[in-house]
Structure formats: structure tokens, C-alpha cells
Amino acid sequence: MKEKILKERGITLIALVITIIVLLILAGVTISIVLHTGIIDNSQKAVDQYAYEQQREEEALKSLSGYMHSYSNVVPIYTAEQLKQVGKGGKVNIEQENTEFEFSMNANYVLMADIDLNPGKWSEEKDKEEKGITYSFNADAEQWTPIGTIDEPFTGTFNGNGHTISGIYINESDKDYQGFFGVIEDSTIENLTVSGSIIGKGGLGGITGLTIGKSKINNCNNLCKITGKNVIGGITGQIKNGNVIISNCSNKRKLNATAEWSGLGGIVGTTNGGEETPNKEITITNCYNEGIITGEGSDVGGIVGEEKTPENALIEKCYNIGDINGTDYVAGIVGFVWYKCTIRACYNEGDIKGTNAYIGGISGTGYVIELCYNSGNITSEEKYAAGITTACENNNGGTVRNSYNTGDIKGKTGAGGILVRIGQRGTIENCYNTGTVTRTDTNESGSGIIDNVNGKGKTTNCYYLEGTASSGIKEIEDEIGQAEEKSETDMKNNTEFVKTLNNGENNWKEDKEGKAAINEGYPILSWQ
Fold first, then answer.
1. 3-class SS string, 340-376
2. Are residues 381 and 352 in contact, defined by beta-carbon separation less than 8 angstroms?
3. Judging by DSSP bridges, how do beta strands 419-422 and 447-453 pair with one another?
4. Which of 262, 287, 343, 444 lies 20 to 30 Å from 244, alpha-carbon distance?
5. What one-character DSSP code corresponds to residue 511?
6. Cα 155 to chain center, whole Å?
7. CA torsion, points 22, 28, 34, 36, in degrees to nearest 10?
8. Which residues of the chain, if any, have pLDDT below 50?
9. Which residues pair with 432 in a beta bridge?
């Protein structure tokens, strides 16, 4: 079977170069035109892009090779009819292999081709109002039945092999746990893209509605538009009783939750496993959202809506560039954090809006936030908003460090460049703000760093740009070494300011100059 996969791979890099040269000659392009119009440069870019794609294919092949060696009795899937048999039990003859395979819930499957579940029965259109993609399905389109249920979850492995399953159509507004998979447990899903429309009640995800146990989801992408009441994620709606790793995944379509409590996230809706089945450890790395996320309730985030893992949760190297809307606890990365969650090396560039309280660039509430930045505009219509997180007052303490905000912040009763509330045991250090901070109830400037000191906490080595706020900390005079106002000259393209932020470590660096700058000359984080 491996030999067949190799034969199906595309043309070689040499063939591509030859094709470009021949086309130029046939078109009568002279050497002078080639040199003066940038055709060589553009051709080289195409070649480089092709080489990059080839490298990705080779890596996928290596991954597949490892997959084939790791599992016995790998079941190949070539067609929609074969895909519909996954998990139904019994033996199915795969004519492409001239072999019968067992299609059980614990089998190991590999996708051998792109599959359209409703060929000729759906269309994809740009929705200008929603700034995204919408799908239309004909009346005779066949609904997809998710693989795995609460009573019989999928416990095997599924390797998409870089392929896409399109035409997924689910319209079950009164049913929970809807997605390509309904429920998975102790399972591995990887290298898969799904596309289509999913309408359900709760526990909805492009890849899986519910994830249980020691499961891994890697290199998966959601292109399904998803609508339901709550507990919705681009990859998985809910995680419970889990020791789960989600990595290298993305959501690129609109997600919409209509209930008063949303639990809505670009990657994961909620990690709230309940009192009887709490999660043990959750790790989400290298994931991103670019879809519009709209919740009519609370706990809405670009990566996770609600994070409720009691002990160990890590969200690292993730980002959001989609606009996000909700009521309370709305943020670019995580809407609501209950316990000990670390958010590290993440960023938000989307505009975040909430009608009520706890609206933040990185999180609505936070425990440990480090090496993060926000450049999106953050708005709370009725209460408070902040560039990084609105509250750092967890009972276990809380820390915001080595982070910055450049977005404009608007809050009615509270607005902070970095955060609004810091608790007795909270700390904030080595941070800066250059965004304009405004309290809309008085139309006056908010605070450059913290807008409401609850228990005072500790603030060290933080700065805000001159003219962006009334003070560093509300109702407290700026102090050297605590929260200080600095001029543009002091902050921009300034080696000494970078040294000050580093504070003996190496978390910051100077931005590049001129057109190469990525933060208008203000300091950037070492990982950027």
C-alpha cells in the first residue's frame, strides 16, 4: 500500500522548473523582459513554494510510514462508501487492495484520497456580511452520522494522510456530540481536514464533539461552519476525564453559539469535565483560529472558551486573528480560566467585543500569562476591558509577565492597558502598553497598566506610552520601577528600554527598522 501512495505523489521540482522555462520561451519572452519584470523572482518564489509543499508531503509520508509501522491491520479508506462503514463492525472488502478488513471502533484507519460525502449536492460561497464562507446543501443531500457515541466511543486511530473530507452535512439541532466523530476515547486523530456544515445542540466540533481519556488530535483543520446552543469548538466541543494533547490544529470557519452560556472556542469549547470526570492534564500547542466566533452568552475564546482543568493546563504558541463576540469572559485566547492554566507565547490580533464584563486580549481571567501580546482592539460595552487579561486574582495567586499590548482598549467602568483587577497575591512584571485606553462612561483615559487594584498585589518594571492613559495604576501616582509613563523616543528603537524590560533575562529584543519592523519599532518578544 505504501508503494501506491508514493506513486500518487506529484511532479518533481526539476519538472516544474523545466515547465516554467518552456512556457517563457513559447510566450516569446526575451531575456531583457525576464530581467526587468521580475519574472525570475516570481518564478523562484513559485519554485520555493513548491519545494515547501514537497517537503510537507515528504514529512507526511514519513509520518504515514511511521503510522504504518506503529499499528497492525491498518485499514485503508478510498471512497465515501468505505468511510461510512468505519466503526460499524464486520469485514469489508476493499477492492483497491483486494483484501477484507475489520471495520471496528478500535481499528486503525488511514485515508487514501480526498472524499466528498455529497458530490454535486452542495456549494461554497463567500458571505460578505459575516466575512467568511458559508455552505449550501441541496434538499437531497445525505446527512453524516458521526462516528462514535457516548455508549460506544471511537477508540481506534484515524490518519487523514493530509486529505480532506468535504460535504459533511449535519442538521440535528436537538442532538449533542456532533462532528465528523461524535465521541472519541483514548484515540488518536491526525492529518485530517474536514469541510461542511454542522448544526447541533451541544458538544459540537469539526473533528469530534467530545474527547475523553488519553487522546491526541494533531495536524487537523476545521473548515466546517458550526452552529449550536453551546459547548462548541472548531476541533472538539468538550474534553472530559482527559489527559489530552491537541497540537498543530486550526479553525477557519465561523462558529456560533446561541445559548446564554456559550462555552465556545476556536479549538476547544470547554475543558469542563464535570465533578465526576475532571480532566487530568490538557496541552494545546501550535494551534490557531481565523474564523469569526460569535456567542450570545459567556466564556468565548479564540482558542478555548472555558478552561477548567483542576491542575495542569498549558496553552502555548497559539494565536487568534478572527473577530470574537460574546457577553462576559470573552478573549482572544481563553475566555474563562478557573484554575492553574498557563498561557505562554500566544497572541491575539482579532477585535474582541463583549457586552458585559471580563473582556481581554489574551484571557478574560488568568492564572499565569507570559510572553504574550495583543494588538487587537478590545471593547466592553457595559463594564471593563483590558489588553492582556481583566482579572489576575485567582485564589492560588496569578502572574502576568513579559507581555505587551498595542491595541486600543475601551471599557465603560474599567479599562487597563494590561489588566483591570489584580488580587492580593497577584503579580505583574516586565510589561508595557502603547494602546490608547479609554473609560467610556466618562470618556476619560483609563489606566496604562492596571485600572483597579484589589488587594494591591505587586507591580514591577511596567511602562505605558505617554498620552495613552491617565496613569499607570488607577489613583496611584506613578513610581519608578513600578508603573511609569515613557515617551515614544524612550520606548521605540531603544536598546536601553529593551535591556530594562529584560531585567537580567532574555525575553525581549529590538524590533527591526523600516519596512521590516513588525511592531512599529517598539520592543518585541524573543520568540517573534
1. CEEEECCEECCCEEECCCCEECCEEECCEEECCEECC
2. no
3. parallel
4. 262
5. P
6. 25
7. -170
8. 2-14, 16-17, 24-25, 29-45, 49, 52, 56
9. 404, 463
**What is the CA 512 to chain-centroid distance, rounded?**
27
pLDDT tens-digit map of 317-354: 999 999 999 999 999 999 999 988 999 999 999 999 99
Cell, residue 325: 463576540
Task: Please state, as a whole number, how many other Cβ atoms lie within 10 Å of the Cβ of residue 165.
Answer: 23
User: pTM (2 decimals)?
Assistant: 0.87
Q: CA angle 498-499-502, nearest 5°?
A: 85
Helices 39-70 & 13-26, crossing angle to 10 degrees? 150
Q: Considering only CA atoms, which of 456, 495, 499, 502 is closest in space to residue 479?
A: 456
CA distance 167 to 116: 5
Residue 417, helix vs strand vs coil: coil
Give the Cα separation of 295 and 299 in Å (integer): 8
pLDDT in tens, 131-170: 678 899 999 999 999 999 999 999 999 999 999 999 999 9
Q: Are 245 and 274 in contact (CB under 8 A)?
A: no
Grid look-up 483590558 returns: 386
d(Cα 261, Cα 249) in Å, to the nearest integer? 25
Share of the chain above pLDDT 90, in %: 72
* Contact residues for 88 (Cβ-Cβ < 8 A; gap 6+): 103
Residues 6+ apart with CB under 8 A from 99: 93
Amino acid at 379: T
Convert 32-60 into a string of H (helix), E (strand) and C (coil).
HHHHHHCHHHHHHHHHHHHHHHHHHHHHH
Distance separating alpha carbons of residues 410 and 378, to the nearest angstrom: 6
Show the cell assigned to 223.
Answer: 473548515
Grid coordinates representing 191 are 492529518
Q: How far apart are the first and last CA of the chain?
A: 42
Kindly state the DSSP code that residue 397 receives in the 8-state scheme: B
